[in-house]
Amino acid sequence: MGGYGRGELSPGSDLDLLIVHDGSAREEQLSQFVNALLYPLWDSGIPVDHAVRTRTQTRETANSDIRVAMGILDIRTLEGNVDLVNAVAADVAEDWRKNSKTNLTQLRESSRERAERSGELAFLLEPDLKEARGGLRDINALRAIAQAGEEVALDRLSSAAALLANVRDVLHGLSGKGRDQLLLTEQDRVAAEMNFADADALMLEVARASRAVDYVMDLTWHRIDSKRSRGLFKRNKSEPLGKGVIALNNEVTIDESSDILNDSGIGLRAAAIAAQRGLPLSIDACINLAENFSAIPSPWPRSSREDLVTLIGAGSAMIRVFEALDQEGVIERWIPEWGHVRFLPQRNVLHRHTVDRHMLETAVRAAKLTRTVHRPDLLLVAALLHDIGKGYAGKDHSDYGEELIYPLALRMGFPDADAQVLALLVKQHLLLSSVATRRDLDDPATIEYVTSLVSDPQVLELLHALSIADGEATGKTAWSNWKAGLVADLVNRCTIALTGGTGIAPAEQLELTPQQLSRLDNKSLTVTIIERDDAHEIEILSPDQVGLLSAVAGTFSVSRLNVRSARTRTVGEAVAMNWIVTLDPNASLPSEEALTETLRKAIAGEIDLAKRIDERISSYRKIPGIPVPPPVVTATNDIATQATVLEIRMHDRPGVLYSVARAISRFGVDIRAAIVSTLGAEAFDTLYVTDFAGEALTEERAKLLANQVESYLLTQY
């Protein structure tokens, strides 16, 4: 039975023997036979695990103990009555399928408990090749699941199973023991015996194999759960989620009618949607994307870049989707630099993950910090790629990472200024932790040193968040409350030095051309639409009036135009607005005339925007997705503009800006300017408000406004 039954016995493993009899022999005869069989094996030092049972006893025991049942699923006749053994095998196989729901529930729980005890094989310095998650025990479990009649991609396991079994055989042979834990002291010898260049090369392949096993295991359980939740007779129904992307059987996949070869953005679009829904990306979709790969043009269009940010920003739900694509090699075709760090081990007691998985874990932590920074997109991309320079002999990974990330960021379509920020973040991602723990924070030279390297308060803000995410992903030995406190103290001192004590960095406002200024004098509503491949630009010039921003934002929402960014500016008694929008799936861009008329009606109150947007938000809430943090609203007075700056950070959804503007208008203040950004799945809105006399709000009233807007937005979640 077991490994011996499968013909996969390792040198130090036990022989699992089942002696089956028909019950006709006397107990004394049976005992003599068993002793005659086993004593020579014991005397030779071969470990034997045996049982003696009748056919009925075997069936009863297998039904009460899934470990016995799984062993018999691999039964092989050595000698004796073949028909009796075949009957036993048929009994157990029949019961295994018939009781699959109960058996698989027990198997899943035992696998979970084992993973908690032994960890994930791919990410351990000294992994247990058999018991750890993604190891040989999981491969056997997957075979048993397949024998229960479930769909299991066993064809994807053959090379992984062979590699892990070979490593185990060599380990047993070299150590002379049946121990399955691959210790650091033995990795070099095993690598040499198997003709690997070194232990790192061996552990890279071990990680690759175990990740493949883990991926198939996750996929298998998801499919089982999905089938059970659908019910036996429920018809499969697809749900459109985006252009060419559908949900089917609780997975996100690509519509069969999609022309993948001519839609280079469909892979990132599907991945972003899957991660934000908390659903896996189907294995068929991943294979399809790999086999029919269409390169994203360089530089990437804005939509692809934002889909990447949306994917990363999904938190832990991102890892399953990202690694599914990585299993098919799609990630490194998008980001060739990823191939070098893929499965790269870190033989460092501080690190618990391979380089690639550590960067994913850092991105997960960074996703929780997006409310704390002005540019969550830069934080997330920096987190994903901060160690991209590791694994190059003779090169400092921070310095070489800077060299790699700058051209990579440009290829991704980031403007030069953003690419430089990303390069700085990667180069200096260890700066704050190093200085905070090794330098005197009361020494002005320390603050001068840090601010000479990071001279922008918003970049310092990003570096602080990246340091937290990196430290937390590394582990408790690398990041403690004490260290976090030192870093926060350092950042606070540097921020004060950079901002003159205000902590407020200037915001970029809308600049107007002479032509726009002249058109503002007409004091009439005008709409200009500039169509683009990736997103559309809409310019609106209008007389200033209460509720204008909410009317425009609401009109866009009901027209299924998604705001990606906006700049507004009040000039005298007129307002200029510049919007960048994308279309919902199956939506069409309205004409300038139609949009002007809809806006006119909305401003005049002839359209019930609130009702129509509430309906859209209600339907949006019904869509499953990942948990998201609540909105964060802050208010500060800006001396330079003599206005109160209201900053709103929240998860994007239909009608976000409409809700924000509506909440502000209820407070009785004037919105003088707005700067709106949607970065991935995060909305970041900055509004400059004054009282009707054109003055900034009092500190008390500003705080009250922030609390009221935040409370209102919470009711909309």
UniProtKB/TrEMBL annotation:
CDD domains: ACT_ACR-UUR-like_2, ACT_UUR-ACR-like. Transmembrane segments: none annotated. Coiled coil: none annotated. Keywords: Hydrolase, Magnesium, Multifunctional enzyme, Nucleotidyltransferase, Repeat, Transferase. This is Unannotated protein. SUPFAM superfamilies: ACT-like, HD-domain/PDEase-like, Nucleotidyltransferase, Nucleotidyltransferase substrate binding subunit/domain. It comes from freshwater metagenome. Residues 355-469 form the HD domain. Gene3D superfamilies: 3.30.70.260, cca-adding enzyme, domain 2.
